[in-house]
Amino acid sequence: MRRQRLLGLAAAATTGAAAGCLGDGEAGDGGADVEWPSEPYADYETTTVAVESPEGERRGSVTAAVADSGPKRRLGLSDAEALPEDGGMLFVYDAPRRSLTYVMRRMSFGIDIVFVDGDREIARIHNAPEPGPDEDGEAQEYDGSGQYVLEVPYEWTDRHGVEVGDSLRFDL
After folding, report:
1. For the segment 84-128, what is each residue's pLDDT rounded down to a tens digit?
2. Is residue 137 part of a domain?
3. Handedness of CA 34, 143, 131, 73 (dihedral sign)
4. N or C of the chain: less Cβ packing under 10 Å?
């Protein structure tokens, strides 16, 4: 009886592993085979970023690598191979900025770019598709203002019903 149970558990684990490998790690498919944060971001601090409606309803959350210095913000997600459905990057500035422009430099997948003010309220959301085959992403510019910018998988905000006016909750 115990052997049958162990064989059943092993079969279930094998089936689960096979199902988890069906995704190719691209944003939007759950990124089942993508570990986050990964190189070159493996040594970044991380924080859980939760999005809540003005009424306090939780819309979703991600584990975000924190980009809190000039070099980290400039690199952004440019060298990432993929971003799992529950992963992101949180860009942190010392004070709110009136004008920020983000580009899709060397990106091989699309993302959502969420501009957040000093009170952690979402001010603007962009769905930024991956650059075309002959593009480097520099021409894809996304403007906003704020003290924080959250990047998440492409159309993550749509799938989770995230809107301007929602708030971010995180610890730094």
Report:
1. 999 999 999 999 999 999 999 999 999 999 999 999 999 999 999
2. yes
3. negative
4. N
Give the number of other CB atoms < 10 A from CB of residue 168. 21
Q: What is the pLDDT of residues 28-60, one digit of tens each?
A: 444 556 689 988 999 999 999 999 999 999 999
Residue 61 lies in a domain: yes
Taking residue 70's Cβ as centre, other Cβ atoms within 10 Å add up to 8
10 belongs to a structural domain: no
Which residue stretches of the chain are H helix? 2-20, 70-75, 156-159
**Domain total in the chain:** 1
User: What's 89's domain CATH number?
Assistant: 2.60.120.1140
2, exposed or middle or buried, with CB in 10 Å at 0-12, 13-18, 19+? Answer: exposed
Task: For residues 160 and 128, give the distance between their C-alpha atoms in angstroms, rounded to a whole number.
Answer: 16
Domain that holds residue 151: 24-169
* Farthest-apart Cα atoms in the chain, separation: 67
Q: Enter the pTM of the model.
A: 0.81
